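Lay summary. Proteins are chains of building blocks that fold into shapes, and those shapes determine what they do. In this project we predict the shape from the chain. Here is one chain we studied, written as its sequence of building blocks.
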Amino acid sequence: MDLMSYIVSEGLILIPVLYLIGMAIKSTPNMPDWLIPYILGALGIVGAVAILGISVNSVIQGILVAGAAVYTNQTIKQIQLKDTEE
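And here is the predicted shape, written in a compact code that computers can read:
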């Protein structure tokens, strides 16, 4: 299943934006890691509503772009972890 086929083209800009926001939040002292996906989810929804207008589809798009940003982060982490193990 290709996640990117479900995200509208207007919302693709939110993925790198959310990724960078997540990196900034991660570097914030005393911010628990488990909270970052929830913050990115909320910001993704707000961003999608701002771009696409208020609708159920916008909320779904916000959740999808936040998920793609978190997935991207985890993929990069796993690649770096694999490189250090070899």
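What the prediction tells us: The longest helix spans residues 56-85.
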